[in-house]
Structure formats: structure tokens, C-alpha cells
Amino acid sequence: MYGASMCGAVLLLLLLYNICFYAIPTEKLVDTRQSWILKGLNFAFALCWITLPPVVFPYGDANDRVLVAGIMVGLTATTITMVPLTGMGEIIASMLILSCCFALFQAWTIDHGIFYFYIAIEMAVYLFFVLSLTMAVRTLFTAFLVSRYSLEQRNSIVQLLLRNADDDTGDWLWETCASGSLRNVSASLASAFDNSREWLETRIFFDILSDLAGPAAFDGDERTGLGRLRQCLDNRIFFRDIVVSGTLQGQQRFWSLSGRPVFQDRTFVGYRGVGTDVTQTHWAQESASFRARHDLLTGLPNRGAFLDDMETYLIETARTGEAFALLNLDLDGFKQINDRHGHSAGDEMLRKVTVVLSRTLSERHRLYRFGGDEFMLLERQTTPAQASATASGLINALTNVPIRVGEGVRCAVGLSVGIVLSIGGSERVGSLLEASDLALYEAKSLGGHTHRFYNPELRTVAKRNRDLIRALPEALDKGELGIVYQPFFNTQSQKLCGFEALIRWSHPEYGRVPPERIIQLAEEAGLIQKLGVYVMERACLFACEWEEGLVLSINVSVGQLEAPTFLKDTFRVLEKTGFPARCLQIEMTENIFMEPDAATFTLLSRLQSAGISIALDDFGKGFSSLGYLRFFPFSKIKLDGLFVRDMLRESRAASIVRAVVDLSIDLGVAVTAEGVESQEQLSYLRRLGCTEVQGYLLSRPLSPEDTRQFMTTAPAVMEAS
């Protein structure tokens, strides 16, 4: 009865074990709750098995011992099947061998045979092999699980990539035979090409794509999408994400194709792959690429596009030896437009300037916007004469076409151009840009509205300018800039009227720096207001020594007048030095009225209200001086010396001088003629009724010491003339 119960219990355990083992998935056999259940069942079986040797082997006959030994060896070998249960095979094998060794020890205690020790050693060796084999099988089993998991992942990814297009994803499978004809055409592929399955299965896949792309899309160039696809298909190689385009129902579509060649028994049988409609992605990328390479305000290619294009172009010109020119374009007067009318007006101006410039260009030109009011023009297949003509055409186009911004406000804008020529593209992009900058700087220094070619001497000039800009702040701080004074006289009374203060600077290395250059350097260094205060304060302090009634005339640049602290600094200097405002005269060129506005006239009115005289310098050189006289009551106009120099030998110059003098008499405005160098000129101006004269005939600019002495001899100077 007891034996039957034991057999039933064992059979029940075996049945339960088999159900659990086969019902649990393989991946659940590693460190899960189900695996611990199986481990418990195996451990229970092991406890039953290890009782067999100690109970039967020492006390049985030869047959019993052979039976027990065979069973234990078999049970130990079967522990290899427990490798899915981590560590269980090793534990049970060790338990069984230890049980056998214990049984051998019991048998030895009975008949003391050396044979049992020998068998125990063999059992230990047997255990070593079993454990080694178990670990090796476990390694293989683990690799199998990892491989199967990876395969399942890859399959899921492949299924995701190669899913049918019926779910409106735009993806479709394609398959060809060895000849390239489509086969097994799916509904999604037929929909993608807007044709029937039957028609597609009779056509070569590449020919379909080529027909959709059009005759001009594939010319054998392997850099195109179709070219790369043709190369891959011909060479039977794997390809991925080749983008081709075609036209369906009047709309351009883009497809990304991937495929691999299929071989059976080393024989090519065709291609299999996947296609994806990437039209929206393509246009999104095109839009992003356009924004990255183009200026959004004007639509022109930007600086980044220029650098990329030039790198490629220089390689091409190095091979072809083509001559080209870079034209560095910079607008004149754009800053004033921004400051006076706002950035929206400046943006509108840039857009209209782009249109004007583009109209004058041909297919040999490519225009770029670098930022702000700076443009770059590449002119291919050119000569120096052609490049010069192009620059002149651009300058004239902006000068001749009135540009209105905002609410119809007419804005005058000019153009300066720096040109660098190259043959064969041997230079680097950076050196070409630097050269064009130097040429542009030269054009700007000449007053703008012109163009200049680069020459190597400009690098020396640029170095000198950099050195002067670095030296200017220190020269101002140390008071190394001097002031000279040039007198001007009343032609009718022959009396000394006053002196014009002129700045002088002698650099230790570069010598005398022209006054107009000092002004440019100060503006570039951001020191123009500091320089203006320096000149005004020193000149006013010196003029306090003069006879009462003599006028001090000081030149004021556009940069000074536009400084927000100009009025405050002017009144502060007058208060500090004690110089009377009625004896101060401020001279300004008509550049300040490039874009006349209320703020400019308000500032001039406040100066005039304080008793300061306002003189319009270099009258006649501009194009709208008469308009200035209409809008603002200047105290004096100064006739440019160019007209005075030529008036005795050119009838037109003489007519202009007469007209200006007559105009000043009618308006009740004093007129000073500059550049008087001969007695004939002085006599002619006196007969015309010119109010004042100034020039080398009467006196050159004088140092403060010479000025003091000159004031004592001034009447004799005029009488002698």
C-alpha cells in the first residue's frame, strides 16, 4: 500500500513537471516566477533520487549495485537538460554524485575494499565533465535566446518598414525578376504609380521611373537619383534611400527607394525592396535648405551660400582658367535712412534696391546679400573693362531711379563698389574677400558713389589706417592734435571777419594726416563726438583772447551733428570757456541733408536761437542745395573753391559763381568764396558783390602764435591785396 502511494505521488509530480515545462515559454525559464516553480519541482525529485544509493547500494547484491550505479549515472547525465533553469543542473548533479560517494563510503565500511575509493575518484571526474558540459550548453542556450530575440526585433522592424501601403503610409513593396520587370505588384504599388497591376507587371521598373521623371531627368549622370539607381541595378548591389522624382497627375512626386539583389543557388533572380513617398519631407527639406542659404528679406543667396558656391567655383576656374571678378557693394547713406525712418523703411529700401540691382545684371552675374547694406556680386567670364562697366551701371541705376519708402518718402541712396579680379581661381575665398573689402574701403574714402579696383598697395594703406585708428585715441588724450586758423575777410570793408579752425595731426611714422582723413578715422573709431568737443573747446578757449567781434568758425561733420549729446556738449563748452555764442559759427556740408527731416531742422533752429551762426559749406557740390536754402534760413553759404578756381577760364563756372552771389544777395545771406589764390579772382569776386573771401592769397592756415601776430597786421594784408 505504501509503495503504491509513493509511485502515485511520483507519477503526479512527473505529470505536473511536464505540464509546467512544456506550458512555460522558453523566455520565461530565466529568472521568472515560473522558473522558480520548476526549480522547486526539480529539487524535490533530486531529494528522492539521492536517497537511492545510500539505501540500496551498500546492502544490495551485485545486481542491485549495478542497477543503482546505472540509474545514478543516467540521472546525472540528464541534468544537462536543466540548463534553462539557471544553476539547477549543477546543483542536482552535485547532489547525485555526493550521494553516490556517500554510498561508496558506506560500502567501504562494510568490507574495506580499495575498489570503492577508485570508483569515488571516477565519480568526481565524471562530475567535472558533467558540470563543464552543462555550462557549455547553457552558453549556447543563452546565445540562442539572444539571437532569437534579436531576430524577432529585426523582423518587427522589417515588417514596420515593409508594411503594406493600404494603411495610407505611402510605403510599398516592389519586386522584379532578373530582367528588371516588376512582378507580384501590390495594390499599394499600383496606387503609388497611378496605374493598374496588369500594366505594371509588363514593364521594367527602371523604365517606369525614367518615364515619370521625364527625358531631361536622366542623362547618364551618376550624381542624380536615377543615375545612382541605374548604377546599382546594373551592378546588382544593395542600395538604400535613393530619392527619385516623377510627375503624376501634373504634380511632382518624390520617392525614396531601397532594395537588395536576390540570389538563388548563386543565380541572380531579381530585386526586392521598399519604396516610400517622401514628397512632403522633400519639400520641407528644400524649404529649410532655402532658408539656410538665402536671405529671407531680399530672397538673395546669403553669405553661407556665397562661401559654398565660391569653394566649388574656384575648383572649376582652376581647371578652366576662367577670369572672374568679385564686386563688393555697399550702400551709401543707408544708415541715415534707418536712423531717420526706422528699420521697416530700411528693410523696404533693401528690397527695392535688390530689385533695381537685379534688373541690371545678366546670366553671368550672381548677386548675394552678406547682411546689412552689404552685397557681393560674382561676375563670370569678365575683363577689367567689363567689370568697371558693371560697377558703373549699378551705381547709375541707384542714382537715376528714385526710391520711395514708407508713405512715399523719397530717399537718396548711393553705391560704393570694390572690385577684385582673378584668373584661374588660384586665390582662397578669404583672400578675395579681404581684397574686395580693401577696394571698397578705398571707394568709400573717396566719398562713395564710385568704384575702385584692388591693388596690392591698398594693403599698405589698410595697415596705415589701422595704425592711425589705434593711435588716434592716445593722440586725443595727450592733446597731440593741433588746431590752425585760416582767416576770412569782408571784401567790401576789407576788415578781418574771423578765423576758421582747422584740425592738424602729424603722426610720428606717417607724417601729416589730412583733415578729412582725420574725420574719417574718428568716425570709424567711434571718436567723432570726442574729437568735435576737443576741437571746439580748444578753439573757443583760444578765441577768448581775440578782439571782440571776430568770428570763430568750426566745421561739424554729419557724425557729430547726429550724436545725441551734440547740443548739450556745445552749450557746455560755451559755458566752460566763456566764449560768446554770437561769435561762434558752425559749418556743415549738405551731406547732413541727404534725408532732411524735422529733427535736423529742429536741432539747427535751437543752435540759431542760441545765437550761433549756421553756414552751409561746399555750396554747389551737391544736387539740392537750393532746396536747403528754401527750408532753412542759413546765416551764410560758402562757395566751393572748385568754382572759384575755374571761374576766370570757364564760362560755366563763372555763371555758377555769379548766380550764387546774386542768390545770396536776394536772400539776404552772406556768401564766402573759398580758395581765393590770385588777385584777379579777388577783384572779380569783389565786383560781383561777394560778401567774404578766404584763401591762400590772403593767408594760409596759421598756428595759434602766428594767429596772434596776424591779427595785428590783418588790415595791411587786405589793403595790399
Could you characterize the architecture of this molecule?
This protein has 721 residues and is an alpha/beta fold. The strands form 4 sheets. Strands 12-13-15-16-17-18-19-20 form an 8-stranded mixed beta barrel, surrounded by 4 helices. Helix 2 (33-49) packs parallel to helix 5, helix 5 packs antiparallel against helix 6 and helix 19 packs parallel to helix 21. The longest helix is centred in the N-terminal third of the chain and has 47 residues, at 115-161. The chain is elongated, with a radius of gyration of 50 Å. The N and C termini lie far apart (159 Å). The relative contact order is 0.04. The model is unreliable at 155-168 (pLDDT under 50).
Task: Write a compact overview of the structure shown.
Helix content is 54%, strand content 19%.
Break the fold down into its secondary structure elements and pairings.
Elements: H1 2-23, H2 33-49, H3 52-56, H4 62-78, H5 88-111, H6 115-161, E1 171-175, H7 187-192, H8 197-200, H9 205-213, H10 225-235, E2 239-248, E3 251-264, E4 267-277, H11 279-293, H12 303-320, E5 323-332, H13 334-341, H14 343-359, E6 365-371, E7 374-380, H15 384-400, E8 403-405, E9 409-411, E10 414-423, H16 429-445, E11 451-453, H17 457-478, E12 482-490, E13 496-507, E14 511-513, H18 515-525, H19 528-543, E15 551-555, H20 558-561, H21 566-577, E16 584-589, H22 598-609, E17 613-619, H23 625-631, E18 636-639, H24 641-646, H25 651-667, E19 670-673, H26 679-688, E20 692-693, H27 704-720
Parallel strand pairs: 10-11, 13-15, 15-16, 16-17, 17-18, 18-19, 19-20
Antiparallel strand pairs: 1-4, 2-3, 3-4, 5-7, 5-10, 6-7, 8-9, 12-13, 12-20, 13-14
